[in-house]
Amino acid sequence: MSSLSFKPRPRGGRWPVMFAWLGVLLLVVALIMMAMAGPAYRLEWLSLADSFNLLRKGAHLAVGAGVLGLLTFMVAGLCRRWRPALVGMLVILTVAAAVALPAHKMQLARSVPPIHDITTDMTAPPAFQALAEARREAPNALAYPGDATADQQRAGYPALGPVILDAPLSEVMGAVEATVAEQGWEVARVSATRLEATATTRWFGFADDIVVRLRETPEGVRVDMRSASRIGRSDLGTNASRIQRFLEALQQRLAGEG
User: Fold this and answer.
1) Cα-flanking dihedrals φ and ψ of residue 2, to 5°?
2) 93-106 as b/e, with b when 16 or more CB fall inside 10 Å?
3) How many CA atoms lie within 13 A of 138 on its CB side?
4) What's phi and psi for 168, nearest 5 deg?
5) Per-residue pLDDT in tens (0 to 9) along the chain, 258 residues
6) Measuring CA to CA, which residue among 36, 159, 158, 34 is closest to residue 105?
7) CA angle 169, 170, 171 (to 5 degrees)
8) Please, what sign has the CA dihedral across residues 119, 122, 128, 132?
9) Distance (Å) of CA 116 to CA 55, 71, 72, 78
10) CA distance 214 to 112
11) Where are the alpha helices (DSSP H) in 79-157?
């Protein structure tokens, strides 16, 4: 007479594993939705509003996956099912990393002025010439928005301003061209005193137009810059940051050459 051995049923049954797999599935779908929001707009599969909606829904789904991951971790931990508990923890950590960027952007939107046209000379902003036609076809205006934008810029970016460089005009322009090339911007036109270019963001492919203007003064060559988005009310601080980084890199380049 043979004896039968029965394998004890795992604590919690199938629930910890089911919660773990469901959390992973939701997370994968959420990540795909969020990752595709930008390329879908760049490839003109979706409008900007639909792309942002896709991104928002993906973020909400990711939060749902995080909640399920937490539930998995708690249930599996109570049942001493360590593999599902580990999966739950990994889901939680991945969700935290995935929603960190959108959360940061939302926080940034609240902390910077809701403007998209930034310049170091608000009295006589450098004008777009070579890029004028492209900007006329874009939602945002070609001309500088005016005093209201200038006031918001002064309040939000009080330290942003032109730089005076003690170097010949031709040397400064050479450094400007080299710094622009280093940034990977697409140059539209360059002359002895002006350079116009376009910077394109990687994810959504937003185009921001840039003009650098040089003027000789008794103190040296004054460098003014303007960076303006073609679309969107707020640039989330991108244009101001771009100008600041460019001017710092330009000064460092000239100091190194000197």
Assistant:
1) -85, 145
2) ebbeebbeebeeee
3) 19
4) -60, 150
5) 444 444 555 655 577 788 888 989 999 999 999 899 888 988 889 888 898 899 889 989 999 999 988 888 888 778 777 788 888 889 999 998 888 777 776 776 677 889 999 999 999 999 999 999 999 999 998 899 989 999 999 999 999 999 999 999 999 999 999 999 999 999 999 999 999 999 998 888 889 999 999 999 999 999 999 999 999 888 888 999 999 999 999 999 998 875
6) 34
7) 90
8) positive
9) 22, 42, 44, 52
10) 28
11) 82-111, 132-136, 147-156
Angle value at C-alpha 17, between 13 and 23, nearest 5 degrees: 140
Q: What is the DSSP letter of 141?
A: -
Cβ-Cβ contacts under 8 Å for 77 (sequence gap 6 or more): 85
Which tokens hold the place of 47?
């409008």
**DSSP helix, strand, coil percent of the chain (3-state; round to 5):** 55, 15, 30
In sequence order, what are the residues at sequence separation of 6 or more whose Cβ sits closer than 8 angstroms to the Cβ of residue 46?
A: 37, 40, 54
Under 8 Å between Cβ of 69 and 91: yes
Start-to-end CA distance of the chain, whole Å, equals 97
Closest CA to 215 of 90, 119, 121, 95: 121
Q: Going along the chain, which residue ranges are E strands?
A: 117-119, 163-165, 186-190, 194-200, 207-217, 220-229
Cα(180)–Cα(168) distance, integer angstroms: 18
Give the C-alpha separation, 153 to 113, whole Å: 7
